[in-house]
């Protein structure tokens, strides 16, 4: 798929849809169980009361992580928001220059 910078660009392209539709209360606990975020990152993500702001913060951190974390994020979406994973896959197919 995409390299580190490509993953960040891909997530930026689908960010509006993720912010609008991602249920952070379903996804985030699963990501925590996968050990993706540090305690500090967890606190920053959970800090805001607004779910959309939490999602924005989560995406900011994901953009800084490696492709293994992105794969874990995709697996989590497959489990609890497959329609959003489909959006990511379709977007990645439209912009093949993510390397």
Number of strands: 0
Largest sheet: none
Which series of helices and strands comes N to C? HHHHHH
| Low-confidence parts | none
Report the average pLDDT across residues: 91
Number of helices: 6
Supply the helix-strand structural class. mainly alpha
**How large is the radius of gyration?**
13 Å
Shape descriptor reads globular
Terminus-to-terminus distance: 8 Å
The helical percent reads: over 70%
Q: Strand-residue fraction?
A: under 5%
SSE topology sketch:
Layout: H1 4-21, H2 24-33, H3 39-46, H4 51-62, H5 67-80, H6 82-94
Care to give the gist of this entry?
Residues 9-92 form the CARD domain. Helices cover 76% and strands 0% of the residues.
Report what the structure shows.
- Helices cover 76% and strands 0% of the residues.
- It has 99 residues and is mostly helical.
- The longest helix has 18 residues.
- It starts with a helix and ends in a 5-residue tail after the last helix.
- The mean pLDDT is 91.
- InterPro entries: CARD (IPR001315), CRADD (IPR037939), DEATH-like_dom_sf (IPR011029).
- Pfam families: CARD.
- One of its GO terms (molecular function) is protease binding.
- This is CARD domain-containing protein.
What distinguishing features does this structure have?
99 residues, mainly alpha
């Amino acid at each position: 798929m995409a390299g580190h910078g490509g993953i960040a660009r891909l997530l930026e392209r689908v960010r509006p849809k993720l912010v609008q539709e991602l249920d952070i209360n379903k996804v985030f606990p699963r990501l925590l169980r996968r050990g993706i975020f540090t305690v500090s990152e967890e606190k920053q993500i959970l800090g805001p009361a607004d779910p959309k702001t939490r999602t924005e913060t989560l995406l900011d951190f994901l953009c800084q992580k490696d492709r293994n974390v992105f794969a874990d994020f995709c697996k989590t979406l497959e489990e609890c928001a497959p329609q959003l994973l489909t959006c990511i896959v379709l977007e990645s197919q439209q912009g093949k220059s993510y390397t």
